[in-house]
Amino acid sequence: MWITRFLTSSIGKKWVMSLTGLFLIVFLLVHLSGNLSIFYPDAGKTFNIYADFMANNPIIGTIGFGLYAMILIHAIQGVLLSLKNKKAKGQAYAKRDTQGSWASKNMALLGILILAFLFIHMGDFWWKVKWAADSPIVAVDYGNGEIGNLYERVVISFSKPWIVISYIVGLIGLAFHLWHGFESAFQTLGLNHKKYTPLISGLGKLYSILIPLGYATMPLYILFFKS
Ligand code: HEM
After folding, report:
1. pTM of the entire structure?
2. CA distances from 39 to 155, 159, 224 (A)
3. Which residues line ligand 1 (CB under 6 A)?
4. Which of 20, 30, 31, 130 to mutate to test the pocket of ligand 1 (most atoms within 8 A of CB)?
């Protein structure tokens, strides 16, 4: 079929990277916006109601499966493309490629760092919330039945310096990955324009700094002001 032929071609594989990458960029903004409710001064009530909605709404649950698929496809395809590029460059010329930013040359490495961060993150929150029998989330009741006190779970995690350090390292990796990835996704899709390309580039740089900074405020705030 033409679509399978396209998706397995060189340009098709790059399109897959771009489209899954753009989906993950949107996810990062949504996840950050919701999580920032942690700062609402009501001892975690808003955050817990938000987290309970995200965990139990069937539509969000379905999108969640799409999200896991996007992460897997993006990671596996990224590693395969990077290995292929390395092999091709080794054959084409012996000298090191000097063009492009440090981030653009280390996208696979940065991606693996982000994946390692995700293992820690999901192991700590998602896994414990859903599966770990030894780590029950204390329930709270705000008048509509019991829901998990995920706020408490987050505070316990972010009170541990090693967890906060792993978050900061992961977020620095994310910043560099987005620094190149955001703009690159638009370029691959052919969305190049004399007028709009500098705008997309500027927006990408801003996004790659503000989003990781936004995430970093939470573990740092809890470590230094709440624990
Ligand atoms: C630093 C502040 C962050 C906080 C407070 C936070 C909080 C949470 C919580 C509470 C959950 C579990 C939701 C549930 O299943 O009930 C979760 C899941 C998740 N987080 Fe984060 N997160 C943060 C940063 C990040 C970052 C930087 C990324 C990506 C690079 C990320 C990616 C994910 C993913 C993929 C899931 C699983 C999605 C799901 O199934 O619901 N998170 N996060």
Report:
1. 0.91
2. 12, 16, 14
3. 31, 35, 51, 54-55, 64, 114, 121-122, 125-126, 129, 150, 154, 167, 174, 215, 218-219
4. 31
